[in-house]
Amino acid sequence: MDQEMIVSARLAQTSDLPELVTMYRDLEAEMTELSDMWPLADGLAEPVDRSLARELETSSVIIGEIDSVPLGFLIARTESLFPQAQGMRVGSIRFVFVDTEARQVGVGESMRELALSVLRDQGISRFDAHVLPGHRLVKNFFEQGGFAARSIVMHRSE
Fold this sequence. Notes:
By secondary structure, the protein is of the alpha+beta class. Helices cover 37% and strands 23% of the residues. It is globular.
């Protein structure tokens, strides 16, 4: 009898910090291959363990698991819009990572749906997701979740 794997997502705890640092470093390596600016402008400030500890206090940090083994993480936070938005906030998914071997089985979707649920519980009804140009898989992942591009940041290095 084959046992089916259990894919789940949960809010991260302080005890998850070492695993979060490891997964963040994997994300950083992957993103740096796409853009050498990512660790300088789009990732987390060093030291990463302190930045992740701060995220655990101020953001929704979600762990994705298969059979209770952490294989991904997502960080979502609320951000204020301009004053003309009259106090409206947007839920912003800043980071999403799933271990290469655990992709395409629902870990990311579980994390995304939990993040949206947590943000909705905070009164959020508008959501952003940050994706690097050229990262087609992540773009497709968010499009499948109902997201559409609303802004692209252009950059030039000399």
